[in-house]
Amino acid sequence: MGSIKMIKYWQENNQMMLSLTWQHLVLVISSLVLATIIAVIIIALFLRKKNWLKALTYFFSLLYSVPSFAFFALLIPLTGLGTTSAIIVLVIYSEYVLLRNFITGIQEVDPSYLEVAKGLGMNERQIFLKVQLPLAMSAIFSGLQIALCSTMAIATIASTISAGGLGDLLFEGLQTGRIEPILWGTILTACLSLYFMLMLKLLENVISGSWRNALKGEN
Amino acid sequence: MNKAMIKFKNVSKKFGKNEIISNLNFEVKEGEFITVLGASGSGKTTTLKMINGLEKPTAGDINVAGYSIQKGKLIEFRRHIGYVVQSIGLFPHMTIAQNIAVTPKLLGWDKEKINHRVDELLDLVNLPRDFKDRYPAQLSGGQQQRVGVARALSANPPLLLFDEPFSALDSLIRQELQHQLKDLHRKLDNKTFYFVTHDINEALYLGDRVMVMNHGKIEQFDTPQNLVKHPQTEYVKQLLDTAQENQKLWEALK
């Protein structure tokens, strides 16, 4: 019975659902890309200033603890309804996760490698780009994964400030008391997450797969 | 042959209140193979790191290849000094070719020149050329150390620093590498090798001169023969006694 209703809902609304999925995707991916760029810039600037880095991470952890619903509402007077406000909130939320993971990953790189790099004549920037960043890749990607999943979920709430996305389906279901849009919204969000998780894994393999495999003893 | 490659003048190094090196004076000439022998904590590695500026002296003057080690020019300066470290030295995320090419790339060599140099160096350290695209994890410890030596030689530096490069290897491979390193030093024209070790046999075998260090001071800096025939301090005597002790054990077992 239920599955027939689900299929019927799809048949009637698939245009709208696909466009919501697309909106959701754009919201999440642009936020993540922005957050990643900001995280790398922050780390590159403050890597040697440990106290600054600590203070910034602490600052973002405070922002992270603000409930997302309140955050969206608070931004309305500043940046209005819609996508801009949504992206700002999503960037801030993922920033904490990304910074934490990136910093831990980079600081856990064996200091002997850094000393060798210095001994071979690399400057600070070259050490960061050619040694620290590549060796921290697995931590960086696990940070991206966590940020991806949480942003996918939080982005549904952006629907409350008219930023669209799959949250529209959830709230439609809540308001009309129908289960189908809620289920469809959940399924599509999960599918989107899975798809991009897979993409991240592939990207990680392209970037550092060959030497990771070498470490595992595969050729 | 007589020019000085390394000159230490009244060099001291403190970490906080601990004086690791106290008033060190010595001179290494161009083309020499110097081994530095000492226990851990003797200051031998700190001394080596002061030669390429990884550690800065608290007091005194260090002169390497005619340049006084000053701040600012250190990065460029290090590209012209070979540096070989213990087993962890190779970057795991770079292929063998990329590892060897680190310094040439920093110096802005073109691709062709780098490729040519990598081939040349692999030949020199007796590694097959098809190792180029492998990763360090796919090589044995001894092979990795050969790559380490090749990398140190990449920009054809006049001075190579070795920080206990063979200490993690088993004795058969270590001996093989010692022979080859000594051959390499003979083959390469007028290159200075500065080799830190805690293995007395390694120090005596490899060095044209051996610097024995203890508690941040030089106990004796002499040819292996003079060291064995005329040990000048109690510490050197004791060190040599341990080697002779081993010899006795061998005789007894025969």
Question: Concise description?
Answer:
Chain A is built from nine helices and no strands. Chain A is mainly alpha-helical. The longest helix of chain A has 45 residues.
Radius of gyration of chain B: 19 Å
Approximate strand percentage of chain B: 25-35%
Radius of gyration of chain A: 21 Å
Helix content class of chain A:
over 70%
Number of β-strand runs of chain B: 10
Total number of distinct structural domains of chain B: 2
Low-confidence stretches of chain A: none
Number of domains in the coordinates of chain A? Answer: 1
H and E string of chain A: HHHHHHHHH
Low-pLDDT sequence parts of chain B:
none
User: Which structural class fits the helix and strand makeup of chain B?
Assistant: alpha/beta
Terminal Cα separation of chain A, in Å?
A: 52 Å
What is the CATH superfamily classification of chain A?
MetI-like
Structure, described:
The complex is a heterodimer of chains A (219) and B (254). Chain A has 219 residues and is mainly α. Chain A has a single domain, classed as MetI-like (MetI-like fold, Orthogonal Bundle), CATH 1.10.3720.10. Helices cover 84% and strands 0% of the residues of chain A. Chain B is an alpha/beta fold. Chain B folds into 2 domains: 16-22 and 29-65 and 158-254, Rossmann fold; 90-157, no CATH class. Chain B has 10 helices and 10 strands. Chain B has helices at 44-51, 74-78, 96-100, 102-106, 111-124, 141-153, 171-187, 200-206, 224-229, 234-253; strands at 4-15, 18-29, 33-37, 59-64, 67-68, 81-84, 159-163, 192-197, 209-214, 217-222. In chain B, the strands form 2 sheets. In chain B, strands 6-7-8-3-9-10 form a 6-stranded mixed beta sheet, sandwiched between helices. In chain B, helix 5 packs across helix 6 (141-153). Chain B is globular. The model of chain B has no long low-confidence stretch (mean pLDDT 91). At the A-B interface, helix 5, helix 6 and helix 9 of A face helix 2 and helix 4 of B.
